[in-house]
Specification:
Layout lengths: L2 H29 L21 E5 L5 H4 L15 H8 L3 H6 L9 H4 L5 E8 L2 E6 L4 E7 L13 E9 L18 E9 L4 E2 L6 E2 L4 E10 L5 E10 L8 E10 L15
Parallel strand pairs: 4-5
Antiparallel strand pairs: 1-2, 1-11, 2-3, 3-4, 5-6, 6-9, 7-8, 9-10, 10-11
Length: about 270
């Protein structure tokens, strides 16, 4: 066999392997954890990662926007448009307090950037509950369909799903024999029907038409510490020129030490 023929044969084998992996990946979310002929497990039972427990935010970036209230007009790095700038430039915390809207920076699109502790539990087999001590807020992540009703709320309506990942293939690019269902994955959460609020404490707005997509991952360091990495994408046709993307880090705690529920504040 010539060198050219050998390369062609190897290329065909690679294409077949890739096609097989893609087919498996498309089927795995529906099959993960399912017994022969049985129904799929509940989101709680079939979870590829464990998000439950107490987590504390670790502020390693954007300190001046997250640990203190930024000055009016300081909206660097947010892709605002002219209308958003007009609203942010008119920010007045006293007016928010007078209107009873001290929680405008504690809505779903802004709250995960605050210095805080979060407590994640399963409310039931199909609902993750996220309690946040900053502002005494609670978010609910519903797996499956969700019927939206009533008025918009600070935390909106969140639909969740597990994004499963394949068990890493072997060095030949083929699935590991007997690898079974996926061993890892992430949580994807899509939130809408949010009451209009602030992306930052100093009045940078998002509208009630905003939609936020979040991805939650868990990683373990060599020293045993667990980290929850949250990647969020906010899209708002009224106030943003392009999606606003952030990455926020939380470290796992052994217990609820430091848990300190505090009310919403328009000033800090």
């Amino acid at each position: 066999m010539t060198i050219v023929e050998t390369r062609r044969r190897n290329a065909r084998l690679l294409l077949v392997s890739v096609a097989g992996l893609l087919t498996m990946q498309a089927r795995l979310p529906a099959q993960a954890g399912r017994g022969p002929g049985g129904p799929p497990p509940s989101p709680k039972v079939g979870a590829p990662i464990d998000l439950t427990g107490y987590w504390v935010s670790v502020v390693t970036e954007d300190w001046r926007y997250r640990m203190v209230t930024p000055a009016k007009g300081d909206y660097l790095s947010v892709p605002i448009n002219a209308e958003s700038k007009r609203v942010a430039d008119a920010w007045d915390p006293a007016k928010d307090e007078a209107a009873g809207e001290q929680c405008k920076s504690y809505g779903a699109a802004g709250i995960m950037r605050l210095p805080e502790r979060v407590h994640v539990t399963w409310q039931d087999d199909n609902t993750l509950r996220v309690d946040i001590d900053a502002g005494r807020q609670t978010r609910l992540f519903h797996f499956g369909s969700l019927t939206v009703s009533g008025t918009a709320t600070w935390q909106g309506d969140s639909v969740a799903q597990w994004d499963f990942q394949l068990t890493p293939p072997n060095t030949m690019g083929q699935p590991q024999p007997g690898a079974g269902p996926p061993k890892s994955g992430s949580l994807k959460v899509t939130t809408n029907h949010m009451r209009a609020g602030y992306l930052r404490k100093n009045g940078v707005p998002y509208s009630d038409n905003a939609v936020m997509t979040e991805y939650y991952d868990v990683i373990r360091e060599r020293d045993g510490n667990l980290w929850m990495i949250l990647t969020s994408v906010v899209r708002d046709p009224l106030y943003l020129q392009q999606p606003f993307i952030l990455s926020t880090h939380f470290r796992k705690q052994s217990d609820g030490s430091g848990w300190d529920p505090t009310p919403c504040s328009a000033r800090w």
